[in-house]
Amino acid sequence: MNRQLQTALLSRDQAYITNVVKCRPIMPKPGRPSTNRPPDSTEIKACGRYLDAQISAVRPRLIIALGATAVARLLGPTARVESSRGSGTYGGIPVVATFHPSPLSLNRSKDRRQKLADDLARAKTLLDETPSGQASSEGPRS
User: Fold this and answer.
1) How many CA atoms are closer than 13 Å to the CA of 73, on its beta-carbon side?
2) What's the farthest any 2 CA atoms get from each other in the chain?
3) Residue 62: C-alpha distances to residues 34, 37, 38, 39 (Å)
4) pLDDT (tens digit, 9 = 90+) per residue, 93-129?
5) What is the mean pLDDT, run by run of 10 residues, along the chain of 142 residues?
6) pLDDT at residue number 109
């Protein structure tokens, strides 16, 4: 992710990275190493108050939702990455929804990698247009 941030001319110290869930859901595979799996709705709900507390504490000027889990948690359970690209809001904070970089490095989709780069450039533009200290005081919804 650091490389993608640098490409968008964002420095790592300008970003606070967190996850929707605070544990790593795994899928056991008998006789083979376990693999990650997307968190289910119960896990997302159980960790929701922690995510909301982090957002309230950090008071970001912008949230970049990387991947389906983050997009659905922040923009609604029916939100999808492709149709949500661009922006929405969460608790009055602008949200730029985009693809998670990990799967893009595996499937080598030039189209999606370009979309991620475009979305990060949009995030940079939104950050540049939002004065410091203008984060929402209402905080995220529970």
Assistant:
1) 30
2) 54
3) 34, 27, 24, 24
4) 999 999 887 776 666 678 888 888 899 888 888 888 8
5) 61 78 81 80 93 94 91 93 88 91 71 86 85 54 48
6) 73
Domains in the chain, CATH or no CATH each: 2-129 (3.40.470.10)
Crossing angle of the two packed helices 68-75 and 41-58, in degrees rounded to 10: 70
Q: Which of 3, 7, 1, 40 is nearest to 21 (CA)?
A: 40
Tell me the CB-side half-sphere exposure of residue 106, using CA atoms within 13 A.
4
Other Cβ atoms closer than 10 A to 135: 19
- 137: which DSSP letter? S
Q: Read off the pTM.
A: 0.79
Q: b or e along 23-45 (b: 16 or more beta carbons within 10 Å of the residue's beta carbon)?
A: eeeeeeeeeeeeeeeebeeebbe
CA distance 21 to 39: 7
What are the backbone angles phi and psi of residue 35, rounded to the nearest 5°? -125, 160
